Amino acid sequence: MSSPLSGMSSLFSRGSWAETSRITAILRRETVGGALLLVATVAAMIWANSPWADGYQTLREVTVGPHVLHLDLTLATWAADGLLAIFFFVAGLELKREFVAGDLRQVRRAAVPVAAALGGVIVPAVLYLLVTLNAGDGAGRGWAIPTATDIAFALAVLAVIGRHLPSALRTFLLTLAVVDDLAAIVIIAVFYTAQLSILPLLGALVPLAVFAVLVQRRVRSWWLLLPLAAATWALVHASGVHATVAGVLLAFTVPVLRSEQAGGPEAGPGLAEHFEHRLRPLSAAVAVPVFAFLSAGVALGGLSGLVTALTDPISVGIVAGLVVGKPVGIMAATWLVARFTRAHLDEGLSWVDVAGLAILAGIGFTVSLLIGELAFGIGSERDDHVKVAVLVGSLTAALLAAVILRLRNRVYRRISEAEAADDDHDGIPDLYQTTPSGRERPQDTP
Questions:
Q1: 433 phi and psi, to 5 degrees?
Q2: Roughly how many angstroms between the first and final C-alpha of the chain, as a whole number?
Q3: What is the pLDDT of residues 359-376, one digit of tens each?
Q4: Are the beta carbons of 278 and 89 closer than 8 angstroms?
Q5: Which helix (H) or strand (E) holds 64?
Q6: What distance in Å separates the CA atoms of residue 150 and residue 177, rounded to the nearest whole number?
C-alpha cells in the first residue's frame, strides 16, 4: 500500500488562483493589523518606562465585571482571556477553511506546513529546556513560550518585504502560523490549566451545542449567536481552562462549505468565510493591539535592567528558541518530508526561501506573551523578563528574515515583471491559466 504522501512531486507548488487571491487579500489586511500591533507595543513600552509608569500599571489592574463565574477580572486579564478569544476564533476559522475547502484539503499539500509547524514547536521547546536545565525554581514551566508564531506580525513583515514572493510560500507561512496557534491552544489547555472544574466545563457544552446547531443551519443572526458564544466562553473560563480555548471550539463548529439549499458554490461565501470577513478586522485592529498594549509594557530599569533581564536563563532560552529553534525545527521537518516523499522544491524556488520564512516564523509575540503570563504569573519579575526576551527574540527574527527575504524578493520581482509583460490582462495571470506542459488551465474564480 502506498503512502498518501507518495504522490507528492514538489514542495510549495503553485496553488489555485482563487487561493492565491484569498491569501493576497489576507496579507493586505494583516499589514494594517501588524502596524497597529507595533504601534500599541511601542506605546506600552514608552509609557511603562516613563515618569508616569505607575499610571500604566494602575490601568492594567483596573477590575471590571460581575463576580458571578469569576468574571470580575482586571483589564489585563480581560485582554488575555477575552479579546484573544476573538483572535483564536478567527484563527480556528482560517484553519478549518484551509483543510476543508482550501488547497490544503489534499493530504500531500497539507503535509508540509503541518510537519513544519510541529517541528517549529518541538525543537524550540527542547532547546529552551536544555538552556534552563539548571536554572531551577520552576524555570521549565516556560518551555512553550518560544513555540508560537505571531500571525499578525509575521504576515505584516512578509507583506511589506515579500510582495513578489511566490504565493505558495505565503500560503505556507499563513498555514504554518495557524497550525502553530492551534498547537499553542492545545498546549495551554493541557499544560497550563492549574485547576479544572468539571461542572462548568460540562455546562459549556450546552451553549456550544446550540451554537453548533444554529450555524449548521446557516443562522447568521448575531443576537442569537453572540449570547451563546459569550456563555460558552464564560463557562470555559469558570472551568479553569483558559478561555481562549472556547474561541477555537466555537470556530470548529462553523460550516465552511455552502449549503445546497443556498444554491451551491455560486451562492456566495460560506458561513465560515462570512464570519472571518466580519471578525478579522476586529481581531487585527482591536483585539490583538489592545492585548499587546496591556501586556507588552515592561519597565526595563535602564541598561543594567536590560542586561539583567537578558542574562536570565529563561530569557536566553526564549531568544534561542525563537531565533534558532524555530528555523531549525521548521527546516528540519520540511527537509524530512521532502526526503520521505522524495519530493523536490517547485521550479524556481530555493531552500534559501524556506530558510527566510522559517526565520520569520520566529516572531512569537502575541501567544508567547500569553503563555509567559500563564507560566510565571502576570506582573511577576520573570514575566517581565519573558516580555523583554520575546521582544528581543521576535525583533531579531524579523530583522534576519527581512535581510534574506528582501534579497529574494528582488529576484522574484524581476520574474513577475517579465511575466506581466506577457500577460493578456484578463485579471488572471497567465501562469494560472496554463499547465506546466503549456495546456490551458481551467480559470478558477476567487
A1: -110, -5
A2: 36
A3: 999 998 888 999 998 899
A4: no
A5: strand 63-64
A6: 7
Q: What is the DSSP string of 108-152?
A: HHHHHHHHHHHHHHHHHHHHHHHHTTTT-TTGGGGTTGGG---HH
Q: Tell me the Ramachandran region of residue 263: left when phi exceeds 0, alpha when psi lies from -120 to 50, beta otherwise.
A: left
Contact 255, 215 (CB under 8 A): yes
User: What domains sit in the chain, N to C, each tagged with a CATH number?
Assistant: 10-192+242-432 (1.20.1530.10)
- Torsion angle, alpha carbons of 256, 260, 264, 265, to 10: 10
- Secondary structure string (H, E, C) spanning 370-381: HHHHHHHCCCCH
Please provide residue 209's backbone torsions phi and psi, each rounded to the nearest 5 degrees. Answer: -65, -40
Give me the DSSP letters along 303-368: HHHHHHHHHSHHHHHHHHIIIIIHHHHHHHHHHHHHHHHT-EEPTT--HHHHHHHHHHTT--HHHH
Largest CA distance in the chain: 69
102 neighbors 270 (Cβ within 8 angstroms): no
Does this model's pTM top 0.90? My answer is no
C-alpha cell read off for 295: 501586556
CB-based contacts of 269, cutoff 8 Å, min separation 6:
258, 277
Compute the distance between CA of residue 77 and CA of residue 80 in angstroms, rounded to an integer.
5
C-alpha cell at position 334: 520540511
Taking only the tens place, the pLDDT of each residue in 72-123 is 899 988 998 999 899 889 888 888 887 787 766 777 777 888 899 999 999 9
